[in-house]
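We modelled each protein-ligand pair independently. The example shown here corresponds to the zinc ion entry; the chain sequence is given first, followed by the ligand as SMILES.
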Amino acid sequence: MDKVVLIERTTLNNILGYAQMLHPREAILLLKGKVDKQRILVNDAEIPPLATHGNTFSTFPLHMLPIDFSIVGVAHSHPSGVLRPSVTDLNKFYGRIMVITAYPYKSEKNLAIFGRQGKPLKYEVI
Ligand SMILES: [Zn+2]
C-alpha cells in the first residue's frame, strides 16, 4: 500500500518560489522530513550543498551527497512545462519521492510527486 504524502504549505511555496527565481534554469532542492509506517511528511526544502549554477537534475552528482536520513527525496523544476519525470529522472531517483514542478510554478497544479517507478502519488498540502 502506498504511503500518504504530506507536504507543508510553506515548503511547497518555497519550492515554487525557488523554481520561479531560477527560471529558465532548472532548480534542484533536497526535501527533508519524516517517514513512518503510514506517511511521508515533507517539511523542508534545502539547496543541495554541491549546487552550482548550471547544474541540472540530470547532471547533479546525487551520489556525492552526504548520507542524511532526513532526506526524503529531491525536487526539481521543468522549465519546459512538462509535469512528468523523464527517463533520466527515473534513473537518478534518490530517496523515496520525487517532486517535479513545471513552468509557470504558480500553485500545486504545477507540482506533482512521483514514486520510484514514476507513478504519480497523491499528496496533501498541510
Ligand atoms: Zn526532470
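The radius of gyration is 13 Å.
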